[in-house]
From TrEMBL:
Pfam families: Phage_integrase (PF00589). SUPFAM superfamilies: DNA breaking-rejoining enzymes. Residues 100-304 form the Tyr recombinase domain. This is Integrase. It comes from Paracoccus haeundaensis. The lineage of its organism: Bacteria, Pseudomonadati, Pseudomonadota, Alphaproteobacteria, Rhodobacterales. PANTHER family: PHAGE INTEGRASE-RELATED (PTHR30349), PROPHAGE INTEGRASE INTD-RELATED (PTHR30349:SF64). It comes from the Bacteria. InterPro entries: DNA_brk_join_enz (IPR011010), Integrase-like_cat_sf (IPR013762), Integrase_catalytic (IPR002104), Tyrosine_recombinase_XerCD (IPR050090).
Length: 314
């Protein structure tokens, strides 16, 4: 049975092969594993973390929440190799900020969302076409909801099937190519929009009153669709309720893209930099985060890394 220190070496080597800068995280985890070895712990457990926290010195909850997140990531990976591993609960320490674990929609759920949006009632039928097209566009491009809503007519080049996103979250413009089916659906919406609404703004996505569709409307209609298909529980007073979010369509696009790369045997690190640019991330680490956030991706990455080690040793 390998020692925790040996498992940590494997874990750090795997994540470095994905492009992560681990200088700070390694220092924290080395101290954690050293404490475990010095105190007779052979596996990761909740008690190990609590004992380490009690003896490590004073720090605020934000610091300990960050350290807990590092230990949990290591434990999730280790659990695939040693079923005795206990992943400490994220509720052991509550910090100010914790990145939300993405909800990854099944393909059938995405189809259900788009289909149900097409049944939203309105006097002229534009509401259904608007939100069906918008939700579908986010699902197949991974763009942020506000990026999609900010598209002007000039930004949607249907002849060349290219969308131009301006003044994005990171202050940069970028272009997204779309496939022929997506361009066809955008054209269908635009044709219906222009036929039904006489006085319009310059926005590509507009409501039946001719005004631009907004973020609140997107989230309200997405919540209603989600309730209709059972992804959220019924709510009184038109409340949104809790459940998978519209932004999780973006996460789902990214995860399925990376999964396809693993299955195709592509160079993940090289492809991830392309995806980072496509998604408009400020730093590649925000894209590599998906590998850590989704267990299946982490397992695939670990399996590939171990295969390389075995091939190198043969």
């Amino acid at each position: 049975m390998k020692k925790l220190s040996q498992r940590l070496d494997q874990y750090l080597a795997l994540r470095r092969s994905m492009g992560f800068d681990l200088s700070f995280e390694e220092r924290v985890l080395r101290k954690f594993v050293s404490f475990a070895n010095d105190n007779g712990f052979q596996i990761i457990s909740t008690q190990l973390f609590l004992d380490w926290k009690a003896s490590y010195g004073s720090a605020d909850n934000n610091t300990w929440s960050h350290r807990l997140g590092m230990v949990r990531q290591f434990a999730f990976w280790l659990a695939e190799h040693d079923d005795r591993t206990e992943v400490p609960s994220s509720q052991l320490v509550i910090g100010r900020y914790r990145r939300r674990v993405p909800y990854i929609y099944a393909p059938s759920q995405i189809v259900a969302i788009v289909d149900e949006a097409g049944r939203l009632p309105s006097p002229y039928g534009l509401r259904a076409a608007l939100w069906q097209t918008l939700f579908g566009l986010i699902a197949v491009t991974g763009m942020r909801v506000n990026e999609a809503l900010s598209l002007s007519r000039q930004d949607v080049d249907l002849d060349h099937a290219v969308l131009t996103l301006r003044n994005t979250k990171n202050g940069k413009d970028r272009q997204l190519p779309v496939n022929g089916d997506t361009a066809h659906r955008l054209a269908h919406y635009a044709k219906l929009r222009d036929r039904l609404v006489a006085h319009q703004s310059s926005a590509f996505f507009i409501k039946e009153d001719g005004e631009p569709a907004g973020d609140c409307g997107a989230r309200y209609n997405f919540a209603q669709v989600s309730r209709n298909i059972g992804l959220r529980s019924p709510q009184a007073f038109n409340r949104h309720g809790d459940g998978p979010r519209i932004h999780d369509l973006r996460h789902t696009f990214a995860v399925y893209t990376i999964l396809d790369w693993f299955r195709d045997g592509r160079d993940i690190e090289a492809e991830m930099y392309k995806l980072s640019t496509y998604l408009g991330h400020s730093e590649p680490k925000n894209t590599f985060w998906y590998i850590e956030a989704v267990p299946e991706l982490m397992q695939l990455a670990a399996a590939r890394a171990e295969k390389r080690v075995l091939e190198g040793a043969s």
